[in-house]
Write a structure and sequence with these properties.
- Residues 40-114 form the Methyltransferase type domain.
- This is Ubiquinone/menaquinone biosynthesis C-methylase UbiE.
- Keywords: Methyltransferase, Transferase, Ubiquinone.
- Pfam families: Methyltransf_11.
- By secondary structure, the protein is an alpha/beta fold.
- The protein has two domains: 3-121 and 185-271, 3-Layer(aba) Sandwich (Rossmann fold); 127-180, no CATH class.
- Helix content is 36%, strand content 22%.
- The chain has nine helices and nine strands.
- Strands 3-2-1-4-5-9-8 form a seven-stranded mixed sheet. The protein has a two-stranded antiparallel ribbon with strand order 6-7.
- A hairpin with a 2-residue loop joins strand 6 (130-133) and strand 7 (136-139).
- The termini are close together.
- Bound molecules: S-adenosylmethionine.
- S-adenosylmethionine (SAM) binds at residues 25-27, 45-48, 51, 70-72, 87-89, 92-93.
């Protein structure tokens, strides 16, 4: 199953997509995939039009639009959408508070936002380094430097450490990427929690996924001392369902039933990888 289908299945079982006007924030699911979920309309917005390449022409059973637009300034009237779908995007939005306000504004009363994202900056590989230097890719998944060092060390300490492993120019490039690039917003997990609390949304479901890695007690204390808004540096992903106003008991039941069936499916796929 593709990632697109995996996320769409999740959203379908938790918030329902059939006959809904859906706004996708940050990314562009292929219309050929969307069609199976029978929305009334699907509007993808992203600040990088490359996401839309090859996906903008679709003559199917729903209206499909892809727009070069920021979530912080959505050019649609109030109350335009029934659902918002956003995967792996919030951590890249520079002004997430503004983005939350805009998403709330364009949702219809009773509308729901389904999102999965990672509080990247406070996670083990939160520096998110991804650069090419002399034909080699230095990627955060391949241990460019020890987990959480971008939070524990000062910039100049990190640079001296890097100079012990790499040449001076590469060490400087890595530091620039870590601290200056606009790739991620550098919010810690607690900042996302605060944004959510301060927004007008009602939280229907909040799942925090943690992936094993834990800093030592001393390193954890250093992280939290330097970044008081980091509550838990082991959190690597959130799944949220929030709504504009109250949702019914029936919708709440459907959402939890959907969550359980998704989890059961995941377990079955692990146990019987081929047959499910
Ligand atoms: C890591 S990609 C995820 C794309 C896709 N959802 C996926 O899971 O493959 C993050 C996307 O968010 C987009 N993005 C960043 N800031 C944005 C903003 N302010 N408004 C809309 N999209 C934004 C980026 O251009 C990028 O396409």
């Amino acid at each position: 199953m593709t990632d697109e289908k995996k996320y769409m299945d999740f959203a379908k079982s938790l918030v329902g997509l059939r006959h809904q006007d859906v706004l996708e924030v940050g990314g562009c699911i292929s219309p050929e995939v969307i069609t199976d979920y029978e929305p009334r309309s699907w509007t993808s917005i992203d600040v990088n039009p490359k996401r839309f390449e090859g996906k903008t022409t679709f003559n199917g059973n729903f209206t499909f639009t892809a727009e070069n637009m920021s979530v912080t300034d959505i050019k649609h009237p109030d109350n335009s959408f029934d659902r918002i779908f956003s995967v792996n995007c919030f951590e890249h939005v520079d002004d997430l508070k503004k983005g939350m306000d805009e998403m709330f504004r364009v949702l219809r009363p009773g509308g729901k936002l389904f999102t999965i994202f990672g509080p990247i900056w406070s996670s083990p590989v939160g520096h998110h380094t991804w650069i090419e230097y002399e034909g080699h890719i230095y990627h955060f998944m391949n241990g460019v430097f020890p987990d959480w060092d971008h939070l524990i060390k000062t910039r100049s300490e990190l640079k001296s450490d890097l100079e012990e492993r790499y040449d001076e120019e590469l060490a400087e490039n890595i530091c620039r990427y870590v601290y200056d690039s606009s790739d991620i917003n550098r919010l810690a997990d607690g900042d996302y929690e605060k944004n959510l609390k301060d927004s007008n949304f009602r939280v229907n479901l909040r799942v925090r996924k943690k992936r094993g890695k834990k800093p030592s007690k001393k390193r954890r204390e250093a992280i939290i001392y330097n970044y008081p808004s980091c509550n838990d540096p082991t959190v690597t992903e959130y799944l949220l369902v929030v709504s504009k106003g109250k949702i019914s008991i029936r919708d709440t039941f459907t959402m939890y039933f959907g969550l359980v069936s998704q989890l059961m499916n995941k377990i079955l796929q692990k146990v019987f990888p081929r047959s499910v």
